[in-house]
């Protein structure tokens, strides 16, 4: 596992409350995580951040080593359709 300090200044994916945020990791404090995205700054409460990884590293892989971090199996799904 890569040390969080080594990711500062790099493109990352941060997962907070089930939402993925992509941007450059600028700072991590005891209370907040700061990302710079192409359009805005994103400040996340540190307590809500579940994971931070380099953008080029998949969060989850299948048996063949393929990235499945954005598939329904890896993040779960909720069926919102009404019958």
Describe what this molecule looks like in 3D.
The chain has one domain (4-62): Roll (SH3 type barrels), CATH 2.30.30. Strands 4-3-2-1-5 form a five-stranded antiparallel beta sheet, with no helix packed on it. Helix content is 5%, strand content 39%. The protein is mostly beta strands.
Summarize the structure.
The chain is mainly β and 83 residues long.
List the helices and strands and how they pair.
Blueprint (H helix, E strand, L loop, with lengths): L10 E6 L2 E10 L3 E5 L4 E5 L3 E6 L17 H4 L8
Antiparallel strand pairs: 1-2, 1-5, 2-3, 3-4
In which range does the helix fraction lie?
A: under 10%
Name given to the CATH architecture: Roll
Q: What gap, in angstroms, lies between the N and C termini?
A: 44 Å
Order of helices and strands: EEEEEH
């Amino acid at each position: 596992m890569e040390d969080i300090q080594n990711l500062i200044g790099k493109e990352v994916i941060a997962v907070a409350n089930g939402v993925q945020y992509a941007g450059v990791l600028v700072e991590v404090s005891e209370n907040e995580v700061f990302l710079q995205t192409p359009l805005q700054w994103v400040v996340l409460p540190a307590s809500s951040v579940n994971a931070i990884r380099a953008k080029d590293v998949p969060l989850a892989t299948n048996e063949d080593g393929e990235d499945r971090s954005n598939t329904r199996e890896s993040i779960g799904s909720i069926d919102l359709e009404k019958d």
